[in-house]
Design a protein that fits this description.
With about 375 residues, this protein is mainly α. Helix content is about 60%, strand content about 5%. The longest helix has 22 residues.
């Protein structure tokens, strides 16, 4: 392995200046740095004006040789570094590019026209996840660290807000105009690759429900109900079931679900959301006193979380208590660091676990 001093020289032009510049270090240089534990430097090099397609191509071309370069005894560690580096690249780039669904022009013969199927183009970030996943799946049986990697990959994928990557086209049967993809050979269905390797991992089952929550509500309900009595995930599954019922205007069912979710968990994230959704429901129903109590409960679960704090401040302000509203907002603005707001993180699901998951993977790389 070349010394990391050489890698740092290659990264200087990437890291210099106030605005990230185009990547100049090769993927092999970045992999050397990542393997050496220079995680922050490498992540910085993956941020900004970066061609993620080029990173994918370099990993596909050079990654296997880099993994094998130090012999069999180092292969497992280098493979983990390569696939975790791929996740870091995905997380840096997924909000810039992910996929393209292109509607085709109508094909007309005389007065009759036919609408061709939409064409799906996956960009580099989801393909980087699949590059790492395919590499790990070459092993007949998963290692314990692969489970951590797959959980991290799920977190990154859910952050993209794209259910199609995880479970396939959720617009099936709704027509081309609604975004349906007829060409199923273009689907990735990442969870179809993961679940058979980890059939007992309940977070992958929950992810199936979350991915179907909007378009396939019956399927999502089956998942949420199946997990209701799970000692670890029952609270979150029940809370998400309640939120789904709320969208369908089944208010009574939703409120009962939120109350039940609190009884099933001690997770502040779940408790906050159950109370916050309850408060919003009660406020819309003009039950201001009960809504205030629920908002206060949410703020108690995650102090200074922006969504509940501002909603509570607005409520007390309308009730003629401006001094209290100011105290709430001032406390929220002074919080350092500001807390993760569960409501803002709701759609990103397991992304809230990313710091712990990538920390676990990095620690394994450094062993």
């Amino acid at each position: 392995m070349r010394s990391f001093g050489v890698v740092l020289l290659a990264l200087v032009s990437v890291l210099a200046g106030g605005r990230p510049a185009a990547r100049t270090a090769s993927v092999k240089d970045l992999l050397d740095g990542y393997l050496s534990g220079q995680f922050a430097h490498v992540v910085e090099a993956l941020t900004g004006d970066v061609d993620y397609g080029a990173i994918l191509k370099e990993l596909q071309r050079d990654g296997p040789a880099w993994i094998d370069a130090a012999g069999a005894s180092a292969r497992e560690r280098r493979e983990l570094a390569a696939v975790t580096f791929a996740l870091e690249a995905v997380r840096a780039g997924e909000w810039h590019e992910w996929k393209l669904i292109q509607k085709q022009p109508e094909m007309c013969a005389g007065s009759e026209c036919v609408q061709p199927p939409n064409v799906l183009y996956w960009k580099a970030p989801p393909l980087l996840i699949e590059w790492g996943c395919a590499l790990l799946r070459k092993h007949p049986a998963p290692s314990p660290i692969e489970r951590w990697w797959q959980l991290a990959a799920l977190a990154v994928a859910q952050r993209s807000e794209d259910s199609q990557f995880l479970v396939g086209d959720t617009k099936i049967g709704r027509g081309i105009g609604a975004g349906e993809i007829v060409n199923t050979q273009d689907e990735i269905k990442h969870l179809d690759h993961v679940v058979p390797r980890f059939p007992g991992e309940r977070r992958f089952l929950l992810a199936q429900g979350i991915a179907r929550d909007i378009d396939w509500t019956d399927d999502a309900e089956q998942v949420y109900r199946a997990l209701e009595n799970d000692p670890d995930l029952g609270g979150e599954a029940t809370m998400r079931f309640g939120a789904m019922q709320l969208r369908q205007r089944r208010t009574d069912v939703a409120l009962r679900s939120f109350e039940h979710a609190e009884q099933l968990t001690r997770d502040p994230y779940v408790i906050f959301l159950a109370r916050y959704f309850t408060a919003q429901t009660l406020e819309r129903g003009r039950h201001s006193e009960d809504a205030e109590e629920a908002y206060r409960g949410a703020v108690a679960a995650v102090p200074h979380a922006q969504s509940a704090t501002l909603a509570l401040a607005a409520l007390v302000l309308r009730d003629g208590r401006p001094a209290e509203a100011r105290r709430l907002v001032s406390g929220m603005l002074a919080a350092n660091p500001p807390p993760l707001d569960p409501w803002r993180a709701y759609v990103h699901a397991d992304d809230r676990f990313w710091p712990q998951l990538v920390g676990r993977l990095r620690a394994e790389i450094l062993k």
